[in-house]
Write a structure and sequence with these properties.
The protein is globular. Helix content is about 45%, strand content about 15%. A six-stranded mixed β-sheet has the order 3-2-1-4-5-6, with helices on both faces. It has five helices and six strands. The chain has about 150 residues and is of the alpha/beta class. The protein has a single domain, classed as Rossmann fold, CATH 3.40.50.
């Protein structure tokens, strides 16, 4: 059975992930460096990693397997998961793919440079109901695909 791995520290769709996971009976790993309230679902594994910028990412990348699904906004983590044969979805419902990830990495690097030069001072658009709905749809499709493969 596929598993779901959530980069949970700043994830706005944890409840939605659990809802889909429970519908399909999938174990879900909520990976954070602490501070999350444990979920009572028997399918949820709360994983607390050491504090550090990439500790949760490293744990996910070391434990994810082909057919599993990662939920993250982190482009380098998504790239690592895709290279291992897993799926990766942003909380806004956009799926990472091998084809799109190269452009995503380049865009991320450009935006980082522009922010450091002071050219961009704003952040991402606010998370919307439409994002949440798109996420639920994308995750459901990814789970269905993973379940067919197993």
């Amino acid at each position: 059975m596929p598993k779901i791995y959530v980069d949970a520290d700043a994830c706005p769709v944890r409840k939605e992930v659990i809802r889909v996971a429970e519908r399909h009976g999938l174990v879900t790993h909520m990976v954070s460096d602490g501070g999350l309230r444990p979920d009572p679902s028997p399918l949820v594994r709360n994983v607390v990693v050491a504090q550090g910028p990439d500790a949760a990412d490293d744990w996910i990348a070391e434990n994810i397997s082909p057919g599993d699904i990662a939920i993250t906004n982190d482009i380098p983590l998504a790239d690592r998961c895709l290279k291992q044969g897993a799926g990766a979805i942003r909380p806004n419902g956009k799926a990472f793919t091998q084809d799109s990830n190269g452009m995503a990495v380049a865009t991320r690097n450009l935006m980082t440079d522009l922010r450091e030069m002071g050219e961009i001072t704003g952040g991402p658009a606010p998370f919307s109901k439409r994002d949440r709905s798109q996420f639920l749809q994308t995750l459901e499709v990814a789970v269905q695909i993973s379940l067919r493969r197993t």
